[in-house]
Every structure is written in C-alpha cells, then in structure tokens.
Specification:
32% of the residues lie in helices and 17% in strands. The chain is of the alpha+beta class and 296 residues long. The chain has a single domain, classed as Malate/L-lactate/L-sulpholactate dehydrogenase, NADPH binding domain (Ribosomal Protein S8, Chain: A, domain 1, 2-Layer Sandwich). Helix 1 (32-50) links the parallel strand 2 and strand 3 (52-60).
Length: 296
C-alpha cells in the first residue's frame, strides 16, 4: 500500500471534532497499527476525566488485532471496547454479493487473580486470515464458513486453493443457523466505527480505508473497582471450573487460552510457518535491513 501510494508513511493525524469525552480523527491515510495505540490512549485519558472516552478514526490503513487496543484499557482499571468497519468480503444474509467487511468487535475487562476477559472476534463465520491459513496448511473450509461467487452458502466441507474463489459468510453461515445475527453485529460495528466518524462505509465508497471505534469505560465512574474485579474473578472462575462435557478437557472463557499462550511464547518463542519466514526474508532483503533471526 505504501508503494501504491494508498498509505502515507509520514507520522500525523488530524482531529476533526472533539469534546471532553469524544474525538473524531482523520488518519490521513496513515497505517492503523501506528495510530491505534495513540487513539486508545486518548480514549483512556478522556475516560479518566469524564468516565467514558470514545475516539473514532477514519481514512486509515489496517489496525491489526483490535483486541490489543481493548486490552490497553485493562491496565488502567477500565473496560476497553473496539469495533472496526472496513472492506468488502462478507455477504449479508440473503444477498448475492459482499457488502460488508469482517467488522470485528472486541471487549476486554480486568479481574484480580483470573486472566483478564478478552473477546476479539470477526462478525463473519471465519476471519479472512483463517482462510489464508487454511490454504497454507492444507485444511478444508467447514460448512457455512463461506459462500460461492454468487453468495450461496457452501454447506459441505470444501478444500480451498484460491482465496478469491469464495466470499465470506456472516457469523452463523445461514439464516437458519443465525447468520442474521452475525450480519447485525457487522452492521452495528459499521455504524459505531464508520458512521460515527462521519465517513462512508466501503459499500458506498470503495477504497475509503479502515474505520475504527475505540472506547474506554472507567470502572470507578460506575462502581467500586475492587468490587468489580472480585466479581469478575468469581464469574470467570465459575466458568473456568465448570464441569466439562465428556471428552472435553475443560471450559474456557474468552481470553484465557490466549493469556496462557502468551506465557508459553515468551518462554519458547513464536512458531512461524516456513512461508512466513520466507516472506520476512524477502521483505528484509528488499528494504536492506538485517534478516529475521530464527531458531530451528
């Protein structure tokens, strides 16, 4: 995108509108993963002052995993919420072409002893990167994950070789299995991230970039922080220690397995597919920087 002139590598952003509790930011075609932390910090600062801070950002590049930004609020005894509206890859229920993006939603909340709750999920049946991962490792796509080029849900297991052969289905896959709910969640994310930014959704303005919503809720503005954390602990522990179904090892809550995996990867490193390592080698060579150090 930098080469094509779609993104501006220079730092900067422009505040379009601001109040004590809100702000709207024009990213001016900057990369989202650079501006995301700055936007969430601004939301946190506003929440510290007035209880709730909401910052919307439009006209940007990709923000990466929005759960990362929601988690930023947790360290400040706040609840973090994020939404994204971007792209055209998901076919609405009963539609014949994609009109929405995967439009992920995320929420993070602190606890005292338990791992924080972190829910971060696309509103599509499968995230876009999971399709690429399926191609990379040779896994089939499961029924209800994708549609054909005409928008018909594919209801049998399907090998995938070309990402462009398919569109993505909303969470639920079909109307009978609840795709209208995934469709509704995607539209909710679009309203909160795109329309509250004063921007147009991609279905009305192709190539308009990513739009995001960053919110921080200061817990002490609503209730006692220690009571909140104790109740979170009790709730999450009740879920974690619930009796699992026969054949299942345990019951998880959102964010628990990721929290555990962080500790494992910090100790042992991050496993990378050989294609990813090759991609790093090509990019570092192109940029004239030191190659990525890897361990066999």
């Amino acid at each position: 995108d930098y080469k094509a002139g779609k993104l501006d590598p220079r730092p900067g952003w422009r505040v379009v509108r601001e109040s004590p509790g809100t702000a709207v930011i024009d990213a001016e075609r900057r990369l989202g993963i650079i501006l995301g932390p700055k936007a969430m910090r601004l939301a946190i600062e506003k929440a510290r002052t007035v209880g709730v801070g909401v910052v919307t950002v439009f006209n940007s590049g990709h923000f990466g995993a929005i759960g990362h930004y929601a988690m930023e609020a947790v360290g400040h005894d706040m609840v973090g919420v994020c939404f994204t509206g971007a792209g055209l890859s998901v076919v609405p229920t009963f539609a014949s072409k994609p009109l929405l993006g995967t439009n992920p939603i995320a929420l993070a909340a602190p606890a005292r002893h338990e791992a924080p709750m972190l829910f971060d999920a696309a509103t599509s049946a499968i995230a876009g990167n999971k399709i690429r991962l399926a191609i990379r490792v040779g896994s089939p796509l499961l029924p209800g994950w994708v549609t054909d080029r005409d928008g018909n849900p594919i209801m049998e297991e399907k090998p995938v070789f070309d990402r462009d052969e398919y569109h993505q289905a909303p969470l639920g896959g079909t109307r009978e299995q609840g795709s209208h709910k995934g469709y509704g969640f995607a539209l909710m994310a679009e309203v909160l991230s795109t329309l509250l930014s004063g921007a147009l959704p991609t279905m009305l303005a192709a190539g308009s970039g990513s739009k995001n919503h960053f919110a921080a809720y200061n817990i002490e503005a609503f209730t006692d922080v220690e009571q909140f954390k104790d109740t979170m602990d009790e709730m999450l522990k009740t879920l974690r220690t619930a009796t699992p179904l026969p054949g299942q090892e345990r019951v998880l809550y959102p964010g628990l397995s990721e929290h555990e995996e962080i500790a494992i990867r910090r100790a042992n490193g991050i496993p990378l597919h050989k294609e990813v390592i090759q991609w790093f080698a090509e990019v570092t060579s192109e940029l004239g920087i030191a190659p990525l150090a890897t361990l066999n």
